Amino acid sequence: LGHYWSGKHHRVVKGINVITLFYTDPQGRQQPVNFRIYDKNERKTKNEYFLEMLEEVRAWGLEPSYVTGDSWYSCVKNLKQIRTHSLNFLFGVDSNRLVSTKKGEYAQVQALDVPQEVLIVWLKDYGYVKLFRTDLKNQVRHYVIYITHENFEAIGYLDFNRVHSEHYDIEQYHRTIKQVCNIESFQVRGKVAVKNHIFSALFGFVQLQ
To answer: What is the pLDDT of residues 59-72, one digit of tens each?
Structure first.
């Protein structure tokens, strides 16, 4: 029910990045459900924060129909962990990501002829996924989609377009917390005070929603 987004990390000010899990429920209501402030002193990667938050929200009882995110979060470890939970996913992948359409032969996704409908490929070190290509505002992007049930073969461009359009809402969320909720506008310096301000900005977004 609903979707998570691990949105691309949003830089609040220099040196401060916020990583958010953004959720859309079946009625279309959207809000952040978990977040982390990237702290290099914790010696965790952004992908480790992502998996940590995903485990938390699932423990709270949220069960998404899809987990989505940009290419930063599409590493094999993340995809395999999502599959372990029997969850569907849609993630962006970098143009140089290696896939195979013929056993033993790998190519970068940017070098493939990807029909509009879909191309089934073997993602290196992961397994079979469906590959989609978009060309919006002369910017080519690639996405892989995986679903856990037997209808994997049936999923097509219309399904991808529906999930991708919801996936893109994370961009609107980042724009809103910056321009409307003033997440970047604070005069405090202390660690706790900064966290309080960021939480308040996110809570303001929830109230607006």
So the answer is: 999 888 889 998 99
